[in-house]
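Quick question, first post here. What does this chain look like in 3D?
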Amino acid sequence: MPVTDVVADAEALTLTLTADFAAPAERVWNAFTEPRQLERFWGPPGYPATFTSFDFTVGGTAQYKMTSPQGEESFGSWEFLEIAPTSSFAVLDQFADADGNPVTEMPASRMTFAIASTAEGARLVSTTYFTSAEALEQLVGMGMVEGATMAMNQLDRVLEGLRAYAQGKGTRTEILDDQHVRITRLIDGPRDLVWRAHTEPELMKKWLLGPDGWRMSECELEPVAGTSYRYAWEPVGDTEGEAFGFDGEILYAEPQRRLVNTEHMTGTDYPSTLNDLNLDEEDGATLITMYIEYPDAQTRDMVLATGMTDGMEASYARLEGVLASV
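> Answer (accepted):
Ran it through. Tokens below.
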């Protein structure tokens, strides 16, 4: 993981994050100063950022929002205070309302980003300066350390490029913590088709099957927040196994970018998971990233032990063939 150190200093009223990257310093600089790249990692998993404006000049401002899995939005703004091209910049970071106006009830802070070359690539040192011990304690208590660490640890795949990051590696499952898992798979095809394949029942029935020998017997889905869905599968021919299904609710839908839903095994008292599907396109390929939130580590391990990753890989391999014929 890129983040190597996070230090909160109550006496100096600072929080300093250090991260090392196997990429040139100029490449890291570009990722932090181009909004379409920045928003691909600035929000932690489950809370992606969208920059609605970005005036990268001294005195200019940037406006952004982060969207929770339930569709709740929180807003922030940067005022650019200092810029030393390719090496450092400083901002006044503030909570904001939906119109970009500062929320004065919440603490503002000065943040600096310093990027320097190393023998292995580049090092980022980001320091946040607080106005009081209370402000530092408040933001650390809100999960600033964990959120910043998880956000920065997403930067590797942006720097490397989606194809280099994921090409030929199949479906990968990473355990993020006791409750969260990240699954990634690169699909050779544009994002609009990958979105359709995840939201149009007739296309879903062609690929979302897991191992060979199964068919999707039911698929009721409308990608609209607040609606219910249901999937069911059954074995075909001599395949062993019993029919099963999942049901749940669509919590958030942003066409061609993000779909969030609960997932519960139909007819059981098993707890539901929260599934957060994200799609990123680059150079004609789409990276599927699925964040899954489990109620606890025991449930997480039980589900992973079923061979879920292998089943997803069989489906994704099938998906590429389906997209080639659409």
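The chain has a mean pLDDT of 93.
The chain has ten helices and 16 strands.
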